[in-house]
Amino acid sequence: MNGSGLSNAELAQQIYEGDKRAEAELFTRFRTGVRQILLRVTGSFAAAEDLYQETLIVTLQRLRSQPLEDPSRLAGFVAQTARNLALAERRKERRRRTDIDSDAMSEVPDLAIGQESAAQVESVAVAVRKLLLELRSERDRLLLVRYYLRGEERDHICRDLEITEATFNVVLFRARGRFQELLEKRGIRGVDLMVFLLA
Amino acid sequence: MNIAISDASRDQDEIATERDSRRYVLGQMIEEEEKRFEAKMLDHPEIASYVSLTRQMIAGLRHLDERGEPSLPSGPETRAKSWASLAAAAVALLALGAGLFFYFRESTNSHDLVAGSAARLGLIDSGTVMSYTLAHTRGRPDVPSIKVTNLAGPLEIRVLPDDPAPSGNYQVALRRQEGDRIVLIGAATKLAADANGLVPIFMNPAGLVAGEYTLALQGQATNEQRYRLRIER
Do A20 and A93 have their domain in common? Predict the structure, then answer.
């Protein structure tokens, strides 16, 4: 259930019946999630941006022409569509790379991070840096780095830093809250930021 | 999702959402779990926003790490300092150098199980290296096995990335499946590919129990590449 009050099943049904407002709702409802899936699969800001609208258009075309077998599984259908398009794009990208000889490659600048996304990453990094500098203790900085950068498990970090899980959560959620504020101050919206990320 | 500061009352759902969003962004979920989470994220846009914030945090930290940002604390160095303190105390109390040596060896924590160089593992017999090359090949779906025969020397795994990073720099995470959980065994950053494009990763075999592992390799501007391997003792 979302802004319009329609369940996913109702949304799918209304699109099939030709309701234009329901079509607009489809884009609003799924845009952030679809972008996250595309970033996860492609690891590329540019590819995710290209495929985000395509995913929703493919979904829309399917819903207009033929109802889903189980309309309550609309989210799963959208997710699978995003994955399929992203994987197809990755295969195409690999073929493109193997078609280019290595001499030519060395003369091509790194296009994987476009100027726009590189600037966004830089802006996010500035916010993270400010957050780290604001943290009062080395322990808190270490907690964030080990948890988010090194990918260590929280129970291991708690044991190693000799803190309880409750303290861990206090540090973590305060840091996240402050980070969100810092991003917003820099004019970066939390919901839609399309950050290139190696994930 | 509201990020409240009243931490005592933080509900378990939010903690679970945070935990899942991080595991999703870091690629720590198994495929089925990942798909379930994606469907949930699409059903709940506030979870997608949560994932977005997590992604930004990780992206920012990685960017700072790659450029050697001084505000970034270094885990291993901090630990080294605490080890040094422990060592000094032990020397003062016992004056038993040999005892200290074994203490340090047994205190090896998970982060030190994987490193970009043999020297960082602090093994006794760093001269004897077991070396293997790992690459994805067509028509070989089986999981390669590595028989650990020498616990004193480092295990070197040289990985051929499918998708080489333009910068030649990588980070790696080693995970082991334990029942329904995937446990992080060790991680290392700033690994450099050699002249042949292979990325050397060193592990302390004493910390690797028999079982199946996944090695996740990632470079800037590339997707995470996963390699499965089986350790036999």
Answer: yes
